[in-house]
Amino acid sequence: MSIFPGAFWGGEVIEALQTVLDPVVLLIVVLSALYGVFVGSIPGLTATMAVALFIPITFHLAPIHAIAAVVTLVACAIFAGDIPNTLLRIPGTPASAAYTDDVHDLAKQGLQDRALGVCLVFSVVGGLLGSLVLMFFAQSLARVATLFGTVEYFWLYLLGLGCAVVATRGSALLGALGLILGLALSTIGLSPAHGSARFTFGIAELYRGINFIPAMIGLFGLSEVLRNLLVIDRRQDAQAPDVASHGAGWSLRRSVESVFGSAVPRLWRRKGPTLRSAGIGATVGMLPGAGADIAAWVSLGVSRRLSKRGQAEPLDHVADATAANNSALAGAWVPALVFGIPGDSVTALVIGILMMKDVTPGPDIFQREDGALVYSIYFLFLVANLVLLPVGFLAIKAGGALVRVSHRTLLPIIILFCVVGSYAVNNSYFDVGVMLAMGLVGFVLDQWRVPLGPVVLGIVLGGPLEERFIGTLNTSDGSLLAFFERPQSLVLGLLSLALWLSPLVSAVRRGKRV
Amino acid sequence: MSRRAPASPEGKGPLVWPLAGLLLLTLLGCGSQGSFPDRPVFLLCPWGAGGGTDRVSRQVAALLEQDLGVNVNVINATGGQGVTGHSRGALARPDGYTMTMMTVELNMLHWRGLTTVGPESFAPIVLLNRDAAALFVRADAPWTTLEELEERIKTSPEPLKASGTAQGGIWHLALAGWYTAMGEDPARLRWLSSQGAASSMTELLAGTIDVVCCSLAEATVQMSSGKVRCLGVMSPERVTPRFPDVPTFEEQGYDWSLEGWRGIGVPRDTPQEIRDVLVPALERVVRSAEFQDFMGRQGFDWRYEGPDPFRASLDRADESLGTLIRSDAFEAIRTTRFGAMVYPTVLGVACAGVLAGLLLTGTLRREGTRRPSRNGWIHFLEGIGFIVLFILLVRPVGFVLTAGILLGLFFWRLGVTPWRAVATTAILVPATYLLFHALLRVDLPRGLLGW
After folding, report:
1. Residue A139 sits at the chain B interface (C-beta within 8 Å)
2. Are A399 and A89 in contact, with CB atoms under 8 Å apart?
């Protein structure tokens, strides 16, 4: 039993189990799950926002109650982002932008239940596996995080971006074009490494750059609405036939089957890839500054690269990405608990909650008398993911009602959602304008078959990538050797260079043959 | 199921549409103007959710809510190193409903020419926190005092690598100021720009940098876990009772101190009678035991200054930071060898390469879709018009009215049956408003009707 931290089976664990199975805690978990799914499924609202809203209340709660709420909220909100992603083509996070078109295409064929079922089941499994990783390997994995400095992050970002190109459906060159476009958009505003204004054309609002949430809503959601508006006269009132096949009388058995019927056998068939994806998710998610976004793309890239053509369905890749996404959530808690360094904005809020309760994160957090609290965090992760299963099922069924609305009624409503969602991020009308502009850009890119996922990832990672790139150059006085100086940077550097060169070479070769 | 052709909604339409308007109006009721505050108040936070300023803002909001009896909603107006939030707060309507959680960047941004908004754009209400800069090294670093670090800086040819915030940010200034105070050229400092103290701490632990300069509050966790050591704090006196063992710079023989601060202000032209409500309310909040307890637990140094002393400290800080920012030393740290256009240039080259590849391989082709009809393009433009009109109208007219009318018009243009259009609009728009207003604390504009 040497892999377990010191007193794993000691009194703390029993105590933690008792705390978690307390009826009040379980009630809080269920309520937070409902709230999390609700907030997460509204375009423009994020898990961070849900948690931040919740913070002032935590002052009056016992720590375990506060943590239970936050853990559940986050796990559920992330999955819920897949609902508008599938039904309306509006991704909830940059991570789910990785597979937007895969799931939305299925929804257009009336198969939204199957797509969302896969998202749900693999989210839950990814979350559970991620929690297990957190349980057993937190302390040893935390050491990996201390190996990562500026240069390593630079390579990691490049690796994530490379995966976005590899994982793209269709031509890698078109993926690269989308990516560079996103990176270019991210240079608008104050440059992260110098703090000087760039491409702002004297517009004060542009100083903060292009916010990725309105951009994402515009690129995917609005552009899809605009495209549908173009052909709406040709549609005989939409979707009705699809519904007819599903809608003849409601039965629980049939609904359960439509959601889980495809997902569960798929899980059985793809045990290996799922384990791999959860591993990637937990490892990448654990690095502060990388997080779920990169995890999902890397997992998708690996999944696309390893599967031989024609053998894997699109949904298999979706499953891999979504498993990594949720597993990364648990990973982000590792550096937060062990070093007090938040892996994402949610764990930053959690550290605040812990400190409010006089629990200071640190390497010895597991050995201290607060140990029980830490172990109960683990169990809460497990419970939260289990609760997500039924709550997510209800959400899928409720969301399905949207699809039954006719296109003529639905399109104006989606526009309203896009407008309000992009406004809600910062209470800014400028963001609504950004959303509109990005909608037009997305419309044009769709016409030229440039994939949109890489554009989003480019906008998200552009700033951090530049910061690391310029930072490394500046601190090394311009020596390119600095990018390969340390052993870990050498390994990561070669890995990402290889990844970048392989599809470009093969794309050019394939292109010539055509 | 609606099978109505888009061109023929006239049948029963004309009667129904005015009815829709009436229904909306009755739903809206009449807005009333009472004494301040009679509707939700906003607290703008120039920094992101989860950070220190955000946590403080949300705590103030929660307590102020109980005191004022109306909702106090925190808005994260982030970006531009604080430009966005401070400018929005200063330019907001001076009616007391938009307050700003101001931070020390207010004293810096205008000197750097990033905005015209400065301390005189605000009427200060309350100062609630001061955090001095402090210097941190890894626990296994060879330096235990500032003197030893100075020795290393002055003798080694290798410049010191440091981080803590963005290039030119407050903690960068603090460290550069110490360099100047000990007669060393700040240009010899290698500053690694970062998005915040947390990622700088990662760098410190990973060994890519030598020191981190940030506030004690931002490093509490790493310090108490024994991973990093604090060499000194740049405050006039020791920070008691939280960190009695950390010596000040002055004790170690350096005439140098620099503090960040947080405080709440409203736009300059806010009427006195509104300030007379806010000042005592915020004083009660900030002086409350609950707030002081919160600040202590989060590691923030609690202070209280009313409007007049706060104004005096604002002016003092503005003068000293202005001197620092306009000095040659600051110019030296601003200019880096790899400037702001290096990265866009690299991107440009990469883009040219990809485009060349696309053209050579002939991959860039338009999707072969059927040409849309003229009507299709009209609907396309209507969709865009919806959003443009929304942006233009929502502030003067209010969310419910704007969204209701636009949605109704759009339904009509797309040929949705009138009863369905009215029902959908009448349910959806107020429901959206209530949802965002009550549950999600995003206040959509009220406009004409006060609703």
Report:
1. no
2. no
